[in-house]
């Protein structure tokens, strides 16, 4: 009986934006959390040193803000040291 073959997940396309690059950092460092919580976040706006992300639900936004915000900010700062704040809204 042949063994099932798992293929590696394909990298997501990168458009060169701050959030796209930061997502790449997060995906490589925390693949489980990335798939569960970070992949669904979308960049909504960047104003100065603030990046606003949109989550698919209020629960999702609350969980990410409570548990993952330092990781999001750190990844954004790897890409752009001028980021001071990350907000997650629903």
Structure commentary:
- The chain has 90 residues and is an alpha+beta fold.
- It is built from 4 helices and 3 strands.
- A hairpin with a 2-residue loop joins strand 1 and strand 2.
- It is globular and about 60 Å long.
- The chain starts with 17 loop residues before the first helix and ends with a strand.
Helix content: 40-55%
Shape-level CATH architecture of the domain at 39-90: 2-Layer Sandwich
Share of residues in strands = 15-25%
Shape: globular
For the structure shown, list the relevant keywords:
90 residues; alpha+beta; GMP Synthetase, Chain A, domain 3; three-stranded mixed beta sheet; 4 helices; globular
Question: Topology of this protein?
Answer:
Elements: H1 18-29, H2 31-38, E1 42-47, E2 50-54, H3 58-67, H4 69-79, E3 85-89
Parallel strand pairs: 2-3
Antiparallel strand pairs: 1-2
Care to give the gist of this entry?
The protein is an alpha+beta fold.
């Amino acid at each position: 009986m042949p063994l099932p073959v798992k293929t590696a997940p394909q990298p997501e396309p990168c458009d060169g934006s701050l959030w796209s690059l930061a997502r790449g950092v997060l995906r490589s460092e925390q693949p489980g959390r990335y798939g569960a919580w970070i992949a669904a976040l979308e960049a909504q706006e960047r104003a100065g040193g603030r990046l606003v992300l949109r989550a698919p639900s209020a629960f999702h936004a609350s969980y990410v803000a409570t548990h993952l915000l330092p990781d999001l900010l750190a990844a954004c700062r790897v890409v752009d040291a001028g980021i001071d704040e990350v907000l997650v809204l629903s």
